[in-house]
Amino acid sequence: MNIYKIIPISISLLGLALAGCSGVSQGPHGGHDISWYLHHQKKMTQEVSWCKNSAGRDKLESCKNAEQASSNAVSYNAKKTMKSIGNALS
Known about the structure:
With about 90 residues, the chain is mainly α. The chain has helices at about 5-20, 35-40, 40-50, 60-90. Helix 3 (about 40-50) packs antiparallel against helix 4. The longest helix has 29 residues, at about 60-90. It starts with a helix and ends with a helix. It comes from Acidithiobacillus marinus. InterPro entries: Eex_IncN-like (IPR047937).
């Protein structure tokens, strides 16, 4: 088989494999813990929005984690900022 035929097939298969990493039932960025959402706040916001979009999604583990991370984000960001300021002053 020609290499020019293998590459598009490989890319297509890889795309299909990655599509299964986060099931639709877990949201666009589901399956992560609170710490992951705190470190990926844009994706956390998308997950929280997805969770609020339909009744019953708030019971999903990923929605609970994203919501908890959202609640913790202000203090997390404040601590991160204070650490950066402390490092800059050192």
